[in-house]
Amino acid sequence: MSRTTVSYTDDRIYEFTPELEPADTAADGESLTVETIDSLEGAIQKDTDRLQSIPDEVNAATGPIAVAGATPGDVLRVDIEEIRVTEDRGRVVTAPAFGLQQDAADIEHPFTRMTPIDGDTVEFGDVSVPIQPVIGTIGVAPATDSYSTLVPHDHGGNLDTTDMTAGTTAYFPVFQDGAMLAMGDAKAAMADGEMCGTGVEIGTEIDVTLDVVSDPTVSLDRPLVETDTAWKTIASAETMEVAATLANRDLMALLEAAHDWETTEAYLFSSLVGGLEISQVVDPLVTVRNAVPKEYLDDPFGAA
Question: Signal peptide span per the entry (predicted)?
Fold first, then answer.
């Protein structure tokens, strides 16, 4: 399959804004390879390199990519087909005033651990961890406000969601003409929660296919991800409780449409199957996803 390559060398952003201009344009249904640089852009290369503070420009996102035919109210479907790491080592770091336990006196801030890549594993000291690449930052131009690539919101952004990986499909609401997709901040491995504030930060090549769902039967307010077994709504907010409420509301809307249920019926059913999952707890907003197994929810948009 012939693919257009979109490189971070010339085309990258540090802020998702409503006024984004395209660096590249893709046809509806086009397959691309998106090259990304590590979130710290090569600044950390050895254990003695320390991140004294979070840079003003961080999590470079390659793009924006305008998708022909995408208009506000549509849904952008992103099939994530393969993610390849492009460095022989990654890095896991702490930084002052960042991370779940940033105030803990017994944890060093800053601290760095370089993680060599050995075949299909990441080496953390004498422990091997399977490489399972994840896209940390992925999103589209927002509706009204602007958000740095460190911040997750309704447009996507720094979702740090482990389901943004090869073999899954991400769906984003389109707020601006062309959608203006951008992605970066990839990790060779990352746990749900991203507790220290980073995963194994690393450069990647990401193969995706982009499709526009025009006039969808179900509208999206926030991102949605499809795995082999489940549909998962994704929401970000200042507190876990608010993010969970938004994610559950979004899931209830899908259930209402699929089963012709009243809102209360969808609310009751949301307590029976699937459930809440934590994406990340370290960014300016926290991110939660809510899963429902596919046996209870058909494709809300139909085949692409």
Answer: none
Residues 6+ apart with CB under 8 A from 176: 18, 20, 72, 140, 141, 143
Structural domain contains residue 101: yes
Q: How far apart are CA 181 and CA 174, in angstroms?
A: 10
Whether 8 maps to a domain, the answer reads yes
Using alpha carbons only, give the angle 166, 141, 170 rounded to the nearest 5 degrees. Answer: 20
Kindly list the distances between the CA atom of residue 240 and the CA atoms of 15, 99, 198, in Å, as whole numbers in the listed order: 24, 15, 19
The one-letter amino acid at 143: A
Least confident of 7-11, 60-64, 106-110, 293-297: 7-11
Find out whether 37 and 203 touch, Cβ atoms under 8 Å: yes
Query: Do residues 199 and 228 share a domain?
Result: no
Cβ-Cβ contacts under 8 Å for 119 (sequence gap 6 or more) = none
Same domain, 27 and 133: yes
Band (304; pLDDT cuts 50, 70, 90):
very low
32 assigned to some structural domain: yes
For residue 234, the enclosing domain spans 224-296
The rounded distance, in Å, linking the Cα atoms of 302 and 53 is 45
Confidence (pLDDT) at 210: 98
The answer to whether residue 273 is domain-embedded is yes
Write down the pTM of the prediction: 0.97
End position of a domain, from candidates 189, 213, 237? 213
| Composition of the chain by helix, strand, coil, percent to 5 | 10, 40, 50
In which order are the strands placed within the sheet that holds 121-124? 89-94, 111-118, 121-124, 127-130
Q: Cα Rg for the chain, rounded, in angstroms? A: 19
CATH of residue 264: 3.10.28.20
**Bridge partners (DSSP) listed for residue 35:** 205
Q: Are residues 127 and 266 in the same domain?
A: no
**Does residue 34 sit in helix, strand or coil?**
strand
Contacts (Cβ under 8 Å, ≥6 apart) of 212: 28, 67, 68, 69, 70, 74, 75, 76, 77, 174, 179
